[in-house]
Amino acid sequence: MERYVYHNLIGGLLLSGLLFLLACQQGVQPPSISVKGEVHGKGPAGNLVAPDTLSLTHDPALAPLPPRVAYHAATGIAGVDSLVLQATASTGLPFQEDFFLLNLSHEIEPGIGTVTDAPGWVRNHVGNLAIIPIRKDDITLPRNRFSAFNSTTPQWAGATWLARVENNDREIPWIISENAPNSFPLPLSQTLVAPPSGESSDRFDLQTLVTMFLANIAGDVTAAVMDMDLPVVSANANNHRVYVVPHVPFEATATPGFGLIYSVDVNVQLGVQIGRMTVYVPISFHFSRTGGTNYEIAVDPLSSISAGWANSDRVLVEYGGLIPPNVAEDVRAGVLETFVDFELPELPVATITSPDSTVTPVMTPFEDALALILSLVAPNSSTVPADYNIIALPEVRATLSGPISNLAVQMPFVTIAVVPAGGSVVAGTTVDASGRVTITAPIDSATFRITRLEPVVTVNRFKLVFLE
Predict the structure, then answer these.
(1) Contact 351/359 with Cβ under 8 angstroms?
(2) DSSP letter assigned to residue 225
(3) Is residue 305 very low, low, confident or very high in pLDDT (cuts 50, 70, 90)?
(4) For residue 58, with 0-12 CB atoms within 10 Å meaning exposed, 13-18 middle and 19 or more buried, which class applies?
């Protein structure tokens, strides 16, 4: 027993001495860390290629401050087999932060026709999402590796991100309950989003934002496909879905943001089904500093400020079967026309009470309302710094057994009926117990259009992080 106590005493003194020497050393060294993320794999010909590499440095002494996110839109690696994330150098005490390496990959599908003005962009931003973190909290340089990719089907490595996330960075989670602090209710008539089970109204969160775009767009696109005057064939739309793109810079000004990609399947018939098209429409939210604690937000390609927008060019139609190219081109043109006419919904961010106690909502343009709602749900107590950035991360901190998808939500189909006015038909928006939303709106004085949106299913949950 005495020998055991003696050895423990000696061990404790040695450890204390080591920590003291380390503290002395770190006391004269300012904190800094450099991190490297790599995507490993093979080239298009099956040949070995150099890894695609992204790097970040956190050093408060540098001017200007280093960026918080590194992003490659494509890697050129056709057979990804591993991701590696490691700290390459560090001084001083560790920062309270994590680094995340994210990569999207997808199977290579030969024989698929495409119509787009930006080849490859959508396919590099939709697919299987792998994420690995590291955190420096001791004297060693941390390293992490992920290799659980599909080994039987080659995966093309698409977009890759390396992000630095501090402990106190603000977040908008996937779900905010009605009893949460700073929760902000939004009406069904604007969001078309059913409240969570057991709650009286939907509170703004990232799920609301993503689902609101899915619901508002799905109805318009379904109607547009039904109304298309396609040569010889007919078409219908189903399997509406939205993917989350973690980070998308606005190339014209390098303004940071994140993205959504709306997608829908269009079945083409000539008596019987002759093929299927899949349409992808990128939408991105870009955040500009205002000099204060909040942001200005612009939505590409739906904003009234449209100079330099890139997402219209990125709209993609994939087609197969017996579908001729001109039909795919007509569908893409029709979708683009739908989005030219699409109006972002105004949102109520305040109310006015009249002398007779009538409460009237103050409707605000979508982008201004979104910026205000974000500031209310996740208040910022300080000025937005020059090195700010934006990223949407999956709630899953790390993919262990295999990649997840960046598919966030999906809706199986939308039904549309035109009925005569009169009787029990009344304009309005309702939701039933299953989450199905019904919108009844007049077309003219004699007819109404009834649009039924099937319940939305969440596939993967994300959170929006303000890197400040």
Answers:
(1) yes
(2) H
(3) low
(4) buried
| Share in percent of the chain as helix, strand, coil (round to 5) | 20, 40, 40
Helix (H) or strand (E) holding 3: helix 2-27
Place of tokens 């449209």: 306
Find residue 114's DSSP bridge partners: 318
pLDDT digits (tens, 9 = 90+) for 58-99: 999 999 999 999 999 999 899 999 999 999 999 999 999 999
Mean pLDDT of the 248-277 span = 90
Residues 6+ apart with CB under 8 A from 461: 174, 175, 207, 394, 395, 408
Count of CA atoms in the C-beta half-sphere (13 A) of 21: 6
What ranges in 293-390 are assigned the alpha helix state H? 311-314, 325-341, 366-377
pTM: 0.91
CB-count burial class (<10 Å; 0-12, 13-18, 19+) for 83: buried
- Interior angle at CA 36, CA 31 and CA 41, nearest 5: 170
Q: Say how far apart CA 85 and CA 36 lie, in whole Å.
A: 6
d(CA 28, CA 272): 76
- Name residue 49's amino acid: V
Q: Where along the chain do its domains lie?
A: 29-166, 170-407
What does the pLDDT look like over 360-374, one tens digit per residue? Answer: 888 999 999 999 999
* CA angle (31 as vertex; 26, 35 as ends), nearest 5: 120
- Residue-wise pLDDT tens digits, 377-398: 999 888 999 999 999 999 999 9
- Which residues are CB-neighbours of 329 under 8 A, at least 6 positions away? 115, 317
Let me know: does 240 contact 218? Beta carbons within 8 Å: yes
Rounded Cα distance, 267 and 259, in Å: 26
